[in-house]
Request: fold
Amino acid sequence: MMNLGQMPDAQGNFGEYGGAFLPPQLVDVMKDVAVQYEKIKNTTAFQEELYDLYTHYVGRPSPIFHARHLSEKLGGAQIYLKREDLNHTGAHKINHCLGEVLLAKRLGKKKVIAETGAGQHGVALATAAALLGLECDIYMGEVDIEKEHPNVVRMKILGARVVPVSIGTKTLKDAVDACFMAYLQDPVSQLYCIGSVVGPHPFPSMVRDFQSVVGREAKEQFNAMTGKLPDNLIACVGGGSNAIGLFTAFLEDETVAMYGVEPSGLSFKPGEHAATMTMGTPGIIHGFRCYLIQDEKGEPLPVYSVASGLDYPGVGPQHSYLKDIRRVEYVTAGDREAIDAFFEISRVEGIIPALESAHAVAYAIKLAPKLPKDQTILINLSGRGDKDIDFVVKKYGRDYGISV
Ligand SMILES: *Cc1c(COP(=O)(O)O)cnc(C)c1O
Reply:
């Protein structure tokens, strides 16, 4: 079997997906980033510095927890959680942000830049930049700045500059455009640090490499706990970085089934979901080819999920490829299922998950009862729910006996 973990090819293609569709000014710059990354990534010095930070700064390895109560209640497969919510800053994003900022330093860049929607990528990048001594500009839509006040404050405390974006709908897509423009103006002293396994080559494979520590740890830990491989892996998919981080170490283990969970939001009507691979078709967005929710002209359409980290109209090119070759099955969970799962795992295991991660839990809740008791499911619990609690109790609390 081909070594799926070693994809893509030299041009960044995962089958017909990926690549680099860039304005002429950026072609050479991106090529240089790819060439330099290829040279640096496997050097002992780079690996040692990154793994030292993973251990002493992030708190890796994150534990695996056997969710016995949830498993018992469901009466089927045994559910285990890879606890990325316990990382410093509370999610998996710190894994790739540290890698990207370390690379930026090696490339002699002064500043890292990125867009952010809900502020999670912005906070993780601002954290890594503070630690490693680089300047950091975060582009954020004015609507999102208003909505995500705590994360805006966090970024500022960490020393980042939050740049308000007032074009278009003043949300994530416009922030991407503004950040892209800023990068075009100075691609030499800045590095654009992409927040998932998306964007032009080399970002989909680079971010995957940095996240793949999750699956490598999980494989060893799970074997130490049970003497086996997990039978099923489940992770939520926005751009797809936490999912590919868990999946990569297991891609060639044919007994391991994998499920990527996309948000079906309120319904499968246009504008009410972000189930890119379930409902989309191949197209080009933000410099790469992937499954895409698009109109007849190839323009991305509005998408929605209760979990703002999942509402992206595209998806990582490697996921698009893994769907076509059927190595991973892409399924969906809606807002309501995610909210139910959010409360269920909070109440039976004492773990409040991020709304994004709750989509993975929701699918496990559907899958586990259909499987025998000696089967196992390993969920990537990508983040903690602190950022979501106020919104959840305000909007849904009454249905779960909470009055605020
Ligand atoms: C951003 C985010 C996601 C979605 O991003 P992926 O690249 O698909 O992993 C999932 N979970 C959490 C907690 C996030 O912050």
Remarks:
- The longest strand covers residues 257-265.
